[in-house]
Amino acid sequence: MNRRIAVLLVFGMMPLAELLAQSQTVTTTFRVSARVEAVCSVTATDLDFGVYSSQNASPQPGTTILQATCTPGTTYNIGLNAGTSSGATINQRKMSGTPASNQLNYQLYSDSSHTTIWGNTSGTDTVTGSGTGLTVPHTVYGQIPGAQNVPAGNYADTITVSIFY
User: Fold this and answer.
1) Bridge partners (DSSP) listed for residue 92
2) Distance CA 73, CA 92 (A)
3) For residue 103, which of 3, 21, 94, 158 is within the disulfide window of CB 3.0 to 4.6 Å?
4) Boundaries of domain holding 145
5) pLDDT at residue 57 is higher than 70
């Protein structure tokens, strides 16, 4: 046997490691996991109606864009509150002037035909979407009713945008 091993070694037919020790392998496994949280964010740009004339009987339109970004497959609703002006409601939004008692009525809609008021009650008057992982734009359609008899000046309001998911 020693002679045979010596011959195999000489001709390189038997690796040295196999001669010195028989190797054994033991295996095990472990699990790799993670939990992906559903997350959403929303950004908004200002809506500027420009110059309004109370002598114009036609409504004055304006638009702005909201950008929603949510985890893929996450269903969300975007809501708009009534604003910060005194006496404003979802159905009657108001911009305040100086003094604050000077108010210019306006409305925000989720459709270009200005028929669906965009509110803040999830599932009722909000806008629904589904996350893609990418930014999804949502247009806000604003309108100031025509022929409002208001003093000259600057009018403004602040709307809070909420995303429910």
Assistant:
1) 89
2) 34
3) 94
4) 40-164
5) yes
